[in-house]
Amino acid sequence: MLKLLKGLSRYKGTIILIFALVFIQSLSDVYLPNLMSDIVDKGVVNSDTNYIINTGFKMILVTIIGGIVTVTASYFSSKVAMGFGRDLRNKVFEKVENFSLAEFNQIGTASLITRTTNDITQIQQVLMIMLRMMLYAPMVAIGASIMAIKKDAKLSLIILVAMPILIVSIALILKRAVPLFKSMQKNVDNLNRVLRENLIGVRVIRVFNKVEVESKRFEGASFNLCDVAIKANQTITLLMPLMMLVINISILAVVWFGGVRIENGSMQVGDLIAFIQYLAQIMFALMMLSMMFVMIPRASASATRINEILDMNQTLKDKEDALKETNMKGYVEFKNVSFSYEKDSEKVLSDISFISKPGETTAIIGGTGSGKSTLVKLIPRFFDTTEGEVLVDGVNVKDLNANYLREKIGYVPQKAILFSGSIFENLKYGKDDASIEDVEKAIEIAQAKGFVDNMENKEETIISQGGTNVSGGQKQRLSIARAIIKKPEIYIFDDSFSALDFKTDKELRKSLVDETKEATVILVAQRVSSVVDATRIIVLDEGRVVGIGTHKELLDTCDIYKEIVSSQLSKEEM
Ligand SMILES: Nc1ncnc2c1ncn2[C@@H]1O[C@H](COP(=O)(O)OP(=O)(O)OP(=O)(O)O)[C@@H](O)[C@H]1O
């Protein structure tokens, strides 16, 4: 937590101001009972109305000052806490944006969302209270103790007895509550995960009639969180009655012994009234401190979770001398590349080597799970190779600046992703300064013109969140258009034509020929018709290259390719 709080340094001035205000607030709070006792002992006892009025005005003045500084301190502490939360959220977001897919896998999307929202809110809340109470509570406890001793040292022995009882009870309650609060965060994570899966998979859940099963799963996660939250809060609510009991018994003792001392003439009535107020102040200060101690461990659990993200070793970080320039354009080379998703786990790709030059199309075909998508993901460096090298323009992608590398690539993922916003905005993702003409041209090449023109607002039509208001094939064509508009040196189509009908697939490939003639095209496909014209076809089987060549060559040399082809084409077509 302390490590995170270092980020507060930019608010140093405001924090000093808050502490100064809180200092004045505590002085005014401790001073008020003293004035009260003066009114009774000097004003009421001597029937001195002037003294009562003057001191009364003084009390009003001190109260007004106290009120103003309290409100101002609250205002500034909220400002600092919210600003700090905003900075931290941005920092976490920036870090996550640069995560490799492996790091996403490691923490999980649901947990990343909880950490960026709920966990940071915990820290914000505790910070706001800390800024106000960290100084105020000890100041009031010490100030009120000194004043109480000054009023009557012997009666202060009651405080000496009550305080340890209170402190031990608080400590016992916290010992039980803190682990419960820590586990609450884990349960929030779990609830988010289940909710997210349910929202994304709602159609599948309905069609498989699993609504009830999923409701139960959600209920389970929800009840778990509820149980822990109830237990934690039940434990904490014990604090209040317990403290009130100790405070009230102490007040009773003070009134009892104070009464005896007044009768003896060793104490004045006003002092007794002030003493009771000081006692209450001390006890409430302790209560505030204990509340802070409840919140700090919960926030520190959140801080640990946030630090986990901030400290994460970014495996795909750019080297300091990463290149931002190359002599060649659009060359892709795999040199004995092997890859496994996790250390020591089975290889998903083994010993892959090939070269693809501008003007050439390299198609990758193979059964499901044979490693096709994994292979193309190594080119924009979503992952690093386990063995061997991936070279772009003759340079190992590890030595290239990531932005520079990705600027060269137009990547169309297997699962088309569109963002909420207009079609125009979505396509401009490929090129910031794209004109409407650029967009229209890209739409035409991607065979999307037909359906875009039929939409009421054409390119200005709004795509809803997750692209749910366009069909799978339309989404694919728009994401192809987004890559085309970029005019990249390297096109990567990861099974990007799978949702298109044969006719559109054919027309799209035809129109792409012209557009991509100076670029390198790497194309993953399941359909033979999509790969027959490729310069070279790589046949993958369980991560290994079992054939490489043109359609004709492979028909003669590669049995697996022959099998794939014969399952899709008639003898005449072959
Ligand atoms: N993020 C990941 N973490 C761990 N393993 C993965 C991950 N992604 C894929 N794999 C595994 O890697 C292997 C190859 O997957 P890949 O997606 O590259 O296959 P593919 O040939 O593209 O399949 P498909 O044609 O079905 O899309 C599979 O066995 C898969 O289980």
UniProtKB/TrEMBL annotation:
InterPro entries: AAA+_ATPase, ABC1_TM_dom, ABC1_TM_sf, ABC_transporter-like_ATP-bd, ABC_transporter-like_CS, P-loop_NTPase, Type_1_exporter
Residues spanning the membrane: 52-76, 129-149, 155-174, 238-260, 272-296
Subcellular localization: Cell membrane
Keywords associated with the record: ATP-binding, Membrane, Nucleotide-binding, Transmembrane, Transmembrane helix
Pfam families: ABC_membrane, ABC_tran
Residue ranges of domain ABC transmembrane type-1 in the record: 16-298
Molecular function as annotated in GO: ATP binding
Residue ranges of coiled coil: none
Membrane topology: Multi-pass membrane protein
CDD domains per record: ABC_6TM_Tm287_like
The ABC transporter domain, residue ranges: 332-567
PANTHER family registered for this protein in UniProt: ATP-BINDING CASSETTE SUB-FAMILY B MEMBER 10, MITOCHONDRIAL, ATP-DEPENDENT PERMEASE MDL1, MITOCHONDRIAL
Name of the protein: ABC transporter ATP-binding protein
Organism whose genome encodes this protein: Romboutsia sedimentorum
